[in-house]
Amino acid sequence: MTLQFVTAWASDRFRGVRRLVKAEPTVLLHEGRLLHDATRGQRVTPDEVRQAIRAQGTGALELVHAVVLEADGGFSVISRPQYGSGSAMDGAPERRTRHHHVGKQPAPGSSSDCGR
């Protein structure tokens, strides 16, 4: 209990500690493309992302604007029609690093971003 109290106290007072102990939402898929570095960093497989999309009743990646791994470990799937202004995405920064189509694996040693 003491460790939990000290951690809560420190995270309230120090931003560095808060960033260490609190999870942030992470965009894993953006506009039908898997963000490879984000999935690797969060230890999420492309199959898990596809499963989350199917669980929402969507069968086509091109209908998905974004998939977000939430701080509680759940997935949020946002379809293109539901995206609107995107104001709900403010807390989930998109990490525009290496990405690829969910159905394709990047070439070994490749750092390309699939033509973007």
Walk me through the structure.
By secondary structure, this protein is α+β, with helices and mostly antiparallel strands. It is 34% helix and 19% strand. The chain is built from five helices and five strands; from the N terminus they run H-H-E-E-H-H-E-E-H-E. The chain has helices at 2-13, 15-21, 36-42, 46-55, 80-83, and strands at 26-30, 33-35, 64-69, 75-79, 99-101. Strands 4-3-1-2-5 form a five-stranded antiparallel beta sheet. The longest helix is centred in the first third of the chain and has 12 residues, at 2-13. It is elongated. The chain starts with a helix and ends in a 15-residue tail after the last strand.
Distance between the termini: 49 Å
Secondary structure: number of strands: 5
Percent of residues in helical segments? 25-40%
Walk across the major sheet and give the strand order. Answer: 4-3-1-2-5
Beta-strand content bin: 15-25%
Order of helices and strands: HHEEHHEEHE
Radius of gyration: 16 Å
Residue-averaged pLDDT: 78
Low-pLDDT ranges = 95-116
Based on Cα principal axes, name the global outline.
elongated
